[in-house]
């Protein structure tokens, strides 16, 4: 007999629902409910089953699930985000959930200049059942209204303003930005530059509000020259950092609203022969791969992008298989935790 939790030897049968149930300490029926994204499973029990599935390498049998009543569904992932690192994290989470629940994921690029009605027609042609809407599309009121009118359930991810008729999975962007700014203040910084995100995304305003609140609570006078507009792209981060470092009294720290712009700020600091973090601390937001692929690695806010995508995908799967009406009042708004991740790009300001 093989020890519990060990993958079957080559040539042996693959793990079964019974194997998963035994390892998780639940019934096979409970495992089936988790696989089919049924709502009547407690979160701790669902987590135990998902951990057992991952440990054993269990792969659901689509044919068997079809016979058991599991309904395959097709969910569209819309994207128009300029950050490839953000999109990669998002894809990882949604694809991981799709592989567990016999779900087809349709990835649809959106041109922000396209009419929402044209996009809805494309989704209908693809026989899409529901839609994942990450930034910046999650804040496009016209698009959300068109999806609602078409009867398509949707889930907003990382919006700063969830709507009443859609699922939403978010973090508290204001509190996260407050925590990062307070971290820099605790290190001794008083001149903290801020690179804002795109003006058409509600999370951008929330992050700016968190920065402002931390300064106000520390009784640090607001300096409008220290807050510069970006748009979440690396190129906008270059321009914003150049503006900040050209000030007569330059900042001792820069907090950028995402990791792409923070990485750009590090590059500009190096161009100006400034050491990071001895001469300038730089912090970001999101904790994407970008934050650990440059030197020094960036201190940042961990936004659980993959987990947010996974949970949003699970919510939509449950909605489609339960078949509630679009705009159903039982939509769920889920808020996940964030974390300040301290790496090598921040430190106390250099003594005058």
Tell me what the structure shows.
The chain has 352 residues and is an alpha/beta fold. The chain has 3 domains: 17-66, lambda repressor-like DNA-binding domains (434 Repressor (Amino-terminal Domain), Orthogonal Bundle); 73-170 and 304-336, Response regulator (Rossmann fold, 3-Layer(aba) Sandwich); 173-303, Response regulator (Rossmann fold), CATH 3.40.50. It is 41% helix and 14% strand. The chain is built from 12 helices and 12 strands. A 6-stranded parallel beta sheet has the order 2-1-3-4-5-11, sandwiched between helices. Strand 6, helix 9 and strand 7 form a beta-alpha-beta unit. The relative contact order is 0.13. Residues 1-12 have low confidence and may be disordered.
The figure for the number of domains is 3
Number of strands: 12
Mean pLDDT: 88
Sheet having the most strands: 6 strands, parallel
Instruction: Estimate the helix proportion, in percent.
Output: 40-55%
**CA-to-CA gap between the ends?**
69 Å
**What is the C-level CATH assignment of the largest domain?**
Alpha Beta
The CATH H-level homologous superfamily of the largest domain: Response regulator
Sequence of strands across the biggest β-sheet: 2-1-3-4-5-11
| Basic shape | globular
Uncertain runs: 1-12
CATH topology of the largest domain: Rossmann fold
Q: How would you classify the helix and strand content by structural class?
A: alpha/beta
Number of discrete helical segments: 12
Instruction: Write the H/E string, N to C.
Output: HHHHEHEHEHEEHEHEHEHEEHEE
Which architecture of the largest domain per CATH?
3-Layer(aba) Sandwich
């Amino acid at each position: 007999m093989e020890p519990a939790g060990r993958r079957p030897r080559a040539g042996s049968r693959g793990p079964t629902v019974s194997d998963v149930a035994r390892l998780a300490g639940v019934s096979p029926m409970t495992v089936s409910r988790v696989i089919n994204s049924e709502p009547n499973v407690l979160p701790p029990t669902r987590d135990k089953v998902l951990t057992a599935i991952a440990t054993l390498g269990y792969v659901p049998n689509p044919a068997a699930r079809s016979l058991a009543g599991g309904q395959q569904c097709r969910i569209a992932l819309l994207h128009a985000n300029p950050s490839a690192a953000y999109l990669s994290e998002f894809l990882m989470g949604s694809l991981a959930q799709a592989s567990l629940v016999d779900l087809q994921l349709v990835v649809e690029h959106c041109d922000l200049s396209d009419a929402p009605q044209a996009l809805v027609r494309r989704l209908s042609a693809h026989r899409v059942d529901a839609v994942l809407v990450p930034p910046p599309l999650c804040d496009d009121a016209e698009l959300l209204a068109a999806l609602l009118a078409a009867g398509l359930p949707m889930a907003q991810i990382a919006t700063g303003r969830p709507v009443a008729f859609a699922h939403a999975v978010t973090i508290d962007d204001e509190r996260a930005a407050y925590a990062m700014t307070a971290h820099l203040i605790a290190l001794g910084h008083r001149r903290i530059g801020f690179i804002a995100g795109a003006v058409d995304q509600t999370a951008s305003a929330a992050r700016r509000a968190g920065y402002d609140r931390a300064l106000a609570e520390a009784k640090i006078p607001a300096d409008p020259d220290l807050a510069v507009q970006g748009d979440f792209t690396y190129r906008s981060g270059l321009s914003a950092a150049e503006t900040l470092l050209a000030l007569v009294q330059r900042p001792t720290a820069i907090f950028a609203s995402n990791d792409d712009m923070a990485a750009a700020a590090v590059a500009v600091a190096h161009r100006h022969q400034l050491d990071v973090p001895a001469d300038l601390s730089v912090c970001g937001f999101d904790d994407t791969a970008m934050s650990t692929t440059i030197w020094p690695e960036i201190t940042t806010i961990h936004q659980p992008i993959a987990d947010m995508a996974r949970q949003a995908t699970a919510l939509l799967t449950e909605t489609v298989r339960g078949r509630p009406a679009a705009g159903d009042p039982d939509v769920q708004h889920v808020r996940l935790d964030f974390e300040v991740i301290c790496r090598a790009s921040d430190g106390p300001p250099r003594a005058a």
